[in-house]
Amino acid sequence: MNIFKTERLSDHLIRITDIAQVCCYLVIGKERACLIDTCLGYGNLLECVRELTEKPVFAILTHGHYDHNGGAIQFDTVYMNVKELPVYKKHSQPQWREALKKQNKAIRKFQEEEIMPYAEPTGFLPIHDGQCFDLGGITIRMIEVPGHTPGIMCPLILEERTIIFGDACGVGVLLFDEFSSTVSEYKNSLGKLKTLEGEYDRIYRNHGTFWSPKELLDHVIECCDLILSGKDDHVPVMEHGYKLFSAHKLSEDGSRADGKEGNIKYSLEKAV
Ligand SMILES: [Zn+2]
């Protein structure tokens, strides 16, 4: 059963969304294809990819969180920044999927045999900041943006003028656990992204609406400044069992109450 929804974004880019509304991106060049992230590991992602392209496919994991690496085992070649290995090791433990099962009805229906085991990260190939992947007429440049996790990367698809921010910069960036940066370190990363603004027109993400307007980056930089000066709304919120603070007041649906996109949810020790 194909449980994935696919959506063609351009001649070279397809969004694949899984049963829990987490998406990954398939980039197809003349010679080969690249799957950016691998969703949660529920259902046969490789089969879905094979329906979309016959070209050789490799996978890139933007970071080590369980909702981005669940289907990695189905791919022979998988790249991930080595700085993400400790994150991956923690997130490939069963408790993350167990917690998700409690919140998500669709996930509870899955039989054990339809759930992919996590890949051994020893087989992953490293990626470094600035590394380029030539797919044949389509180039992906990897940009390291430490913050949410220490080695999280944003793929910039040069010819498409598209960047995938993923969890690195979005509507509720989590700076929450032992692997996340402080707000000032994160602000430096965003400064680097800002220098690349002339190279992309579209921002895609892996959750929620899956995209954001270009102002997002400025709004998240502004959040850093507000937190660092103690002028943010500092609203207590719980996320994944962590006691965090939202930089901006929230509406009932979790978006910013002022209608703008771009927010940070941080633990108190990160507010430096
Ligand atoms: Zn994440």
From TrEMBL:
Metallo-beta-lactamase domain mapped to chain residues: 21-207
Molecular function terms, GO-annotated: hydrolase activity
Record-linked InterPro entries: Metallo-B-lactamas, NDM-1-like, RibonucZ/Hydroxyglut_hydro
Pfam families according to UniProt: Lactamase_B
Keywords tagged on the record: Hydrolase
Protein name from the UniProt record: MBL fold metallo-hydrolase
Source taxonomy: Bacteria, Bacillati, Bacillota, Clostridia, Eubacteriales
